[in-house]
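Collaborator request, handled under Task 6.
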Amino acid sequence: MPTGGRRGPRPAPRPVHSLLQGQPDAASFPRAAWLASARRALTAAPNEAFGPGDPRGRPELRRALADYLARARGVRTDPERIVVCSGFAHALRLLGETRLTRPRMAVESYGLAFHRSLLRSAGIRTVPLPLDADGALTDGLADLDGVRAALLTPAHQFPTGGPLHPGRRAAAVAWARESGGLVLEDDYDGEFRYDRRPVGAVQGLDPDRVVYLGSVSKSLSPALRLGWMALPDHLVDRLLAVKGEREGWTGVLDQLTLADFIESGGYDRHVRRMRQHYRRRRDQLMAALAEHAPHIRVSGIAAGLHAVLELPPGTERSALRAAAWQGLALDGLGGYRHPEATTPRLDGLVVGYATPPEHSFAGALDALCRALPPEQTAA
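Structure tokens returned to the collaborator:
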């Protein structure tokens, strides 16, 4: 029945496609290989594995991780300095509770707001480090009063893309040595590099000053809730005191399965296969943009599961609205900017090309290209 009131604007259609970053291709989870590892792990598990969990994590997994991380990422550690956790966010909470990272922590001026909120809830104020094409300007760390830790994404800056310049890696480690601080290295997608040799972990420069953080959220699935910390020796007992006497976060069977998956070579095979798969996805994205939007510059494409489309100033919001009308879910760069950042504001779209199922990827790219602003011509 008519009410005589003025109608509001029509809502945008519900998303049909998603190019949101942050998750791997769910259909590519290696179910058969994971099941085979689970069976072997369950058969071989000692009886004591079915008792209360060790907060350090199962020794089988810590040994497997120490070998794998040394080989694949250049991490210098041993099983006694690895602590298993339920993912990066869990690790960040635990580190925040050790008080070694208070009262202020340096973070990159573009990053996940969720991580900043976790730190804020632990009583830590985040201080943004300016960014450019070579990553965070770590030579400015010494000028930040009260900063005792720096959270960095050296292999593939999140979300803008590039690796941290070698000189800036060295500067971050030098600052940590001289100040007694810590570098927290978030190696969230370091295994996926496409056009050149992998960038090794900063932790290899100084295992006593760098905490290396990793997980299977990008390489396998965020549903597994498995991550790890390679800690300086002096930090292990303090972190375990915070974590508690028993493992309350990660299941023993998943830990044992991952240990077998790594040691049997299944993890390496899966990573190699997915590296090829995501590189094809990336190349499809680049080809679609070259054909339909050649004026759009793309960055961050040498690694990872997402790319950044750089937009003309002032067009990000309109592009996001256009994407919503195309039934496409994706993020703008503005949502990742630290509210106190001094880095020049960038307009752009963060395109997660790993997310869509194979049958809908072409449709997602079509919707993306239709949402992009046209080429601007000089007046």
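The cover message to the collaborator said: "The radius of gyration is 22 Å. The chain has ten helices and 15 strands. Please let us know whether this matches your experimental observations."
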